[in-house]
C-alpha cells in the first residue's frame, strides 16, 4: 500500500440473510439481501471521499463495513492510518505483527484486537436526536471515548481535552455547555457535539453518515464547514455518506456513486457532477431540483431502484437505463478507468 | 376573478403549559385558480401549521385566534365542525408527508380510495366508485389493476402517487401538499413533482405546496411565501424572489442551498438558530440573526409591503425608505 492511502478496500461484500418463508424452506437456496456486492476503492490521506446513491444502494452498509460495525461476508479492509506512537508497547508489537504490506486487514481482527484501532477510526451518525445518550451530560458524552481508550492521564487533562474540542466545534463557552444535557441543545448544537465526540481522539479516519440531513437548511452549511475545517486542520480522512449530490460537489474531493451494492462511477467531485459518464449518474444529477424558477428540467428516468434480493443480471442499472442493450443484460460491466482518475462501470465506455 | 383562497391575518397559536406558542402570526396570502403557491421555511417556521389551519385539523391545543380563511368566499374559520367536514376533501384536500405510512396496511389501496369517495359522495355506488378509483390511479400513472394490491406491494414512489390519487378522489378545487416527496429518493421525488405539475395543468387545480426545500418550490410554484418564525417575511412571484431576494433571511436561505450547477464554493449559512416561539424577539423576529440589524428592528414589527423596487412584498425595515 502506498503511504498515501489510509484505507484500501478490496472486493468487499455484505449479504444479509433473509428469514426463510415456509415454501422456501423446502429449497436449499439461501435468500440474501446483497447490500454491498463487491466494492473496491481506496481512501487517500486527508481527503473527503463522498459515497452517494439512493436508499438501498448500499452506501450506509459500506460505511459500517469500513469500521467493522458490521461483519463483512467477503473481502478485506486494509487500514494504514494508525499512529503507533499512541499505542502501548504490547499493542504496537501486536499490530506491527498483523500489518501486511497493505496495512492491517481489520476484517481479520477480533473485537478486542479492534479496540486500540478505534482510536483512529470514528463515526458521526445521521440523527443527533438519537445518537446522544439523553442521560449523559455533554461533557460525559464527549469524554466517553477518552475514558474507554484511557488516553487522558487524569481528570484535569480529560476536561481540558473536552473543552478544547468544544471550542473547535464552537459549542461555547464550554464551561457553560459542559454540564448541560442533550435535550437542552438545538439540533445543530447536538450535531456539533456528535462531531466533537468523533474527533476528540484525533482519529485518522472518520465515517460521516448523512451528518446534516436531519438539520435545517440554514444551519447545514455551518456543520459541513466545521467538519471540513476539522479534517483539514487535523489531517484526518473522511468517508462522507450522502444522498445529496449538490453537497458532494461543494464538500468532497472525490465521489463514488453506488447503485444496488455496486460502484457505478468514481471521479473527482467536480468531474463527476459537471462531466458525468454513467447514465445513472446523469439521471441522478438531472433529477436534483435547482433553486431557479426559470430552469426547466429535462426528462426524468422512470422506475425505481429494484430489490437487492434479486438484483437484475448483467449491469444492475439495465432495467432503467435508456441505453441498455443485449450486452448489458448478459454481462456485468467492470469498473474501468476511462480518463485519468475517472472510473466508470458501463458497457458504453468499454 | 376572486381568488380561490384568500387568507387574511391568520393567527394560530398552540396552548401549552408554559403559555401560547405563537406558531403563526398575522399571515395573509391568496391563491388564484390554477395557481401554485409555495410556502417555504425551516422547521418551526409555522408553514405546516398554516396548512393544518386551512383544513382546521390542528392538533390538540392548536387554535385559530384571529383572521379569516376565505375559500370561494366562505370564511372557513367561522364554520361549524359539520360544515367544515363538507369542505374537506371536496373543497380542499391534503397530501401529507410520509408516503410510506399514510395508507392503512391491512386494506387494499383501491378500497381505501373507494372509502374516501363514498364518504364524501354517499350516493356513489360501489361499482361507480371502483371505476373512479381505477381512473384516479391511471391519472397518476399507476396501473389501474393495482387497486387490488395492498400498500406493502407498492413501491415508495407508487405509494406517493396513490396518495395523490386519493387526495383527488372528491375532485377538490385546492390541493395542499405538505413536503411532497421529501422522504423519497431524488429520482422518485423528481417524478412526483413532474406529476404534480401535470395534474395542476390538466385539472386546473390550485395548489399550496409546503416545503423546506427552496428548489422544490422554485420548480413547481408561480408564487412564493417565505416564512420565518411564524411570519411571512417575503411574498410574491417566484421569479422575482429567486432572482432578487430582498429579505436578509431569504438571501441567507438562497445562499445556504448548494446548487449543483455552478462553481464549487464554500457553503454559507445563517448563524444562530430560530427563536423560541413561546417568547419570540420583539420587533422583527429575525433580528437576533440578521447581519443588517438596526435599532428599529428591535422595536417595530416590519409590515409586509412593497419595497419600492422589485415586484414582490417584503417585511424588512431596510426597505422602509420609498414606501408609502
Task: Explain how this protein is built.
- The complex is a heterodimer of chains A (350) and B (324).
- By secondary structure, chain A is an alpha/beta fold.
- Chain A contains twelve helices and twelve strands.
- Chain A folds into two domains: 5-120 and 203-349, P-loop containing nucleotide triphosphate hydrolases (Rossmann fold, 3-Layer(aba) Sandwich), CATH 3.40.50.300; 129-202, no CATH class.
- Chain A has helices spanning 59-66, 89-98, 111-114, 138-148, 155-168, 174-177, 187-199, 217-234, 245-251, 269-274, 279-287, 326-330, and strands at residues 5-17, 32-44, 48-52, 74-79, 104-105, 121-124, 205-209, 237-242, 254-259, 262-268, 336-339, 342-344.
- In chain A, strands 6-7-8-3-9-10-12-11 form an eight-stranded mixed beta sheet, with helices on both faces. Chain A has a four-stranded antiparallel beta sheet with strand order 2-1-4-5.
- The longest helix of chain A is centred in the middle third of the chain and has 18 residues, at 217-234.
- By secondary structure, chain B is an alpha/beta fold.
- Chain B is 31% helix and 22% strand.
- Chain B has ten helices and eleven strands.
- A seven-stranded mixed beta sheet of chain B has the order 6-7-8-3-9-10-11, sandwiched between helices.
- In chain B, helix 3 (109-120) crosses helix 4 (126-139), helix 4 (126-139) packs across helix 5 and helix 5 (156-167) runs parallel beside helix 6 (186-203).
- The longest helix of chain B is centred in the middle third of the chain and has 18 residues, at 186-203.
- The two termini of chain B are 27 Å apart.
- Chain A binds chain B through residues 54-55, 186, 188-189, 216-222, 224-225, 243, 245-247, 249-251, 269-270, 273, 283-295, 297, 300-302, 304-305, and chain B through 42-43, 155-157, 185-191, 193-194, 212-216, 218-219, 221, 238-239, 242, 252-254, 256-261, 264-271, 273-274.
Amino acid at each position: 500500500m502506498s503511504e498515501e492511502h489510509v484505507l484500501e478496500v478490496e472486493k468487499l461484500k455484505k449479504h444479509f440473510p433473509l428469514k426463510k418463508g415456509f415454501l422456501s424452506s423446502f429449497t436449499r437456496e439461501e435468500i440474501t439481501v446483497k447490500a454491498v456486492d463487491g466494492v473496491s476503492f481506496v481512501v487517500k490521506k486527508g481527503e473527503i471521499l463522498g459515497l452517494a446513491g439512493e436508499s438501498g444502494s448500499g452506501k450506509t452498509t459500506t460505511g459500517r463495513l469500513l469500521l467493522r460495525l458490521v461483519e463483512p461476508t467477503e473481502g478485506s479492509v486494509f487500514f494504514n492510518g494508525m499512529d503507533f506512537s499512541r499505542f502501548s508497547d504490547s499493542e504496537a508489537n501486536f499490530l506491527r505483527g498483523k500489518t501486511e504490506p497493505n496495512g492491517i486487514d481489520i476484517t481479520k481482527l477480533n473485537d478486542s484486537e479492534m479496540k486500540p484501532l478505534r482510536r483512529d477510526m470514528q463515526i458521526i451518525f445521521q440523527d443527533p436526536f438519537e445518537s446522544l445518550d439523553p442521560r449523559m451530560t455533554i461533557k460525559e458524552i464527549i469524554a466517553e471515548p477518552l475514558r474507554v481508550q484511557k488516553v487522558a492521564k487524569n481528570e484535569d487533562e480529560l476536561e481540558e481535552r473536552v473543552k478544547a474540542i468544544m471550542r473547535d466545534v464552537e459549542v461555547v463557552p464550554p464551561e457553560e455547555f459542559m454540564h448541560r444535557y442533550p435535550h437542552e441543545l438545538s439540533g445543530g448544537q447536538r450535531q456539533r457535539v456528535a462531531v466533537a465526540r468523533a474527533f476528540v481522539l484525533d482519529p485518522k479516519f472518520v465515517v460521516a453518515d448523512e451528518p446534516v440531513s436531519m438539520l435545517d437548511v440554514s444551519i447545514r452549511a455551518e456543520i459541513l464547514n466545521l467538519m471540513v475545517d476539522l479534517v483539514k486542520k487535523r489531517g484526518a480522512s473522511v468517508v462522507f455518506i450522502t444522498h445529496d449530490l449538490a453537497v458532494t460537489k461543494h464538500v468532497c474531493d472525490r465521489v463514488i456513486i453506488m447503485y444496488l451494492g455496486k460502484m457505478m462511477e468514481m471521479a473527482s467531485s467536480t468531474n463527476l457532477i459537471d462531466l458525468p459518464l454513467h447514465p445513472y449518474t446523469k439521471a441522478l444529477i438531472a433529477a436534483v431540483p435547482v433553486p431557479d424558477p426559470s430552469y426547466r428540467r429535462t426528462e426524468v428516468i422512470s422506475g425505481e431502484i429494484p430489490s437487492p434480493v434479486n438484483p437484475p443480471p448483467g449491469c444492475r442499472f439495465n432495467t432503467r437505463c435508456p441505453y441498455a442493450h443485449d450486452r448489458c443484460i448478459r454481462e456485468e460491466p467492470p469498473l474501468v478507468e476511462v480518463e485519468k482518475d475517472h472510473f466508470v462501470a458501463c458497457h458504453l465506455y468499454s | 376573478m376572486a381568488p380561490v383562497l384568500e387568507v387574511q391575518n391568520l393567527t394560530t397559536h398552540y396552548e401549552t403549559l408554559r403559555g401560547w406558542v405563537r406558531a403563526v402570526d398575522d399571515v395573509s396570502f391568496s391563491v388564484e385558480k390554477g395557481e401554485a403557491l409555495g410556502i417555504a421555511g425551516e422547521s418551526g417556521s409555522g408553514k405546516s401549521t398554516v396548512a393544518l389551519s386551512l383544513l382546521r385539523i390542528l392538533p390538540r391545543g392548536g387554535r385559530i385566534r384571529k383572521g379569516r380563511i376565505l375559500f370561494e368566499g366562505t370564511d372557513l374559520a367561522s364554520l361549524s365542525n359539520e360544515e367544515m367536514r363538507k369542505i374537506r376533501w371536496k373543497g380542499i384536500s391534503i397530501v401529507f408527508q410520509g408516503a410510506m405510512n399514510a395508507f392503512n396496511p391491512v386494506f387494499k389501496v383501491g378500497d381505501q380510495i373507494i372509502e374516501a369517495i363514498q364518504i364524501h359522495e354517499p350516493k356513489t355506488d360501489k361499482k361507480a366508485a371502483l371505476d373512479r378509483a381505477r381512473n384516479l390511479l391511471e391519472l397518476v400513472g399507476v396501473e389501474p389493476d393495482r387497486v387490488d394490491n395492498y400498500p406493502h406491494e407498492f413501491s415508495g414512489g407508487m405509494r406517493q402517487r396513490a396518495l395523490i390519487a386519493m387526495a383527488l378522489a372528491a375532485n377538490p378545487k385546492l390541493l395542499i401538499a405538505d413536503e411532497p416527496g421529501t422522504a423519497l429518493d431524488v429520482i422518485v421525488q423528481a417524478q412526483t413533482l413532474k406529476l404534480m405539475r401535470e395534474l395542476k395543468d390538466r385539472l386546473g387545480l390550485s395548489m399550496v405546496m409546503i416545503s423546506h426545500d427552496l428548489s422544490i418550490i422554485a420548480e413547481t410554484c408561480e408564487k412564493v411565501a417565505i416564512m420565518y418564525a411564524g411570519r411571512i417575511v417575503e411574498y410574491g412571484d417566484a421569479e422575482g424572489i429567486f432572482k432578487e431576494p430582498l429579505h436578509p433571511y431569504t438571501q441567507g436561505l438562497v445562499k445556504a442551498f448548494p446548487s449543483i450547477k455552478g462553481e464549487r464554493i464554500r457553503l454559507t449559512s445563517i448563524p444562530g438558530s430560530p427563536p423560541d416561539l413561546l417568547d419570540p424577539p420583539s420587533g422583527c423576529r429575525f433580528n437576533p440573526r440578521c447581519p443588517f440589524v438596526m435599532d428599529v428592528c428591535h422595536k417595530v414589527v416590519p409590515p409586509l409591503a412593497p419595497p419600492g423596487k422589485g415586484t414582490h412584498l417584503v417585511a424588512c425595515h431596510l426597505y422602509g425608505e420609498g414606501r408609502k
